[in-house]
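In the design runs reported in the main text, the only information available to the sequence generator was the tokenized backbone. The following block is the verbatim input for one such run; it is reproduced so that readers can re-run the procedure and compare outputs position by position.
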């Protein structure tokens, strides 16, 4: 009998807790250890469940036999935690972004290959069945030639000047909303279309030049609250994106429209279990995310019956389950984003930042 896959989660904030939930839904994996700087978080997720808990993740790596480490720490720690796991030969599932700089990202891709550590970055929106179906229809030719891709990623949790988060401090004068949520959309567009983004022209904006921290201190803000971005893919296809974390009423609104010869395909994360097909003749068709309506890989991962709305949590579960299958069952689910995929997204975000400063299109390839 095979032993259960032993997993560790480092960083037990919002997304770390969601990873734990998703891992528990995978039958052959168990949470063996957790780590967080905050002892209360460690206690919450370890004490009562016979799970080893650490406030120092390096001790966790030293003491525990781990098959997969989930890196759910703040962005500035991704490089060091990913690297520490890889050089110990531990497989790694990292939160985005892969690292803080392109050089760090390149080093991680190289090290992961050298140390044969199976690697993935959590671009979880790829793993929504409706998104996979869009990709399927582009790839199998059903949608016809693509004319245009457009969309947005909008939130409102930083709309007030008293809204503050570690992302504001960590980002310095580098990209923030573009990196935090724009990165998801760039990955989504590249995944669905199956081609790389080759150049961008970005106009970032800052809604609040200063923000007030919870302790009352007022700090200057030099990173973007959002941006408008013109995009060219490597084959010349044009796309555009609006990113914002200050748009009141938009919670986690990720939308993408892929407008093709035979129809357009529209998907909205907050209505995740439907793919809207827009037709020149015959109006709109709303296709429920269910295996009987979907094709290829999307069929299997639409595992709930139609009307039993699969949402954000199911997509996160799918993304993590696909990674575990790729690593331990030697499958190759394309919706699982590798470190190399994540490095490409970093190049796009970095080009956006350069474009915003230089006020021109910046080429990536
Ligand atoms: N894929 C997604 O949809 C998604 C959504 C949210 C966040 N994220 C990513 O997840 C990461 C974490 O974001 P979050 O929203 O959960 O943040 P958070 O602030 O809620 O949680 C971060 C946790 O990391 C802990 N931490 C800080 N330093 C640590 C260290 N040295 N060792 C161990 N733990 C440490 C903190 O105590 C905190 O509990 C970010 O990189 C973010 O980009 C991804």
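Verbatim output:
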């Amino acid at each position: 009998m095979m032993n259960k896959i032993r997993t560790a989660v480092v960083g037990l904030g919002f997304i770390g807790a969601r990873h734990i939930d998703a891992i528990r839904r995978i039958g052959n994996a168990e949470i063996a250890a957790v780590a967080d700087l905050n002892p209360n978080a460690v206690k919450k997720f370890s004490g009562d469940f016979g799970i080893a808990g650490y406030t120092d993740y390096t001790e966790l790596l030293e003491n525990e036999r781990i098959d997969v480490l989930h890196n759910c720490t703040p962005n500035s720690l991704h490089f060091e935690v990913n690297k520490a796991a890889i050089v110990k030969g531990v497989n790694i599932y990292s939160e985005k972004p892969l690292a803080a700089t392109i050089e760090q990202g390149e080093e991680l891709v190289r090290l992961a290959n050298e140390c044969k550590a199976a690697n993935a970055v959590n671009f979880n929106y790829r793993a929504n069945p409706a998104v996979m179906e869009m990709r399927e229809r582009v790839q199998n030719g059903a949608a016809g030639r693509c004319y245009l891709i457009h969309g947005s990623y909008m939130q409102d949790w930083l709309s007030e000047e008293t809204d503050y988060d570690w992302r504001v401090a960590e980002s310095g004068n580098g990209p923030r909303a573009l990196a935090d949520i724009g990165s998801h959309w760039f990955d989504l567009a590249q995944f669905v279309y199956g081609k790389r983004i080759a150049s961008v022209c970005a106009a970032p904006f800052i809604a609040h030049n200063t923000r007030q921290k919870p302790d009352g201190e007022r700090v200057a803000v030099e990173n973007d609250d959002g941006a408008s971005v013109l995009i060219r893919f490597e084959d010349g296809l044009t796309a555009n994106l609006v990113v914002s974390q200050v748009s009141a009423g938009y919670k986690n609104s990720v939308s993408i429209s892929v407008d093709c010869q035979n129809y357009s395909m529209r998907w909205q994360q907050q209505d995740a279990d439907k793919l809207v097909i827009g037709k020149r003749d015959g109006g709109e068709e709303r296709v429920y995310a269910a295996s009987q309506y979907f094709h290829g890989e999307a069929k299997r991962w639409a595992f709930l019956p139609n009307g039993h709305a699969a949402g954000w949590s199911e997509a996160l579960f799918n993304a993590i389950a696909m990674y575990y299958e790729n690593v331990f069952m030697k499958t190759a689910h394309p919706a699982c984003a590798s470190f190399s995929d994540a490095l490409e997204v970093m190049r796009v975000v970095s080009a956006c930042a350069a474009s915003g400063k230089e006020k021109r299109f910046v080429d990536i390839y």
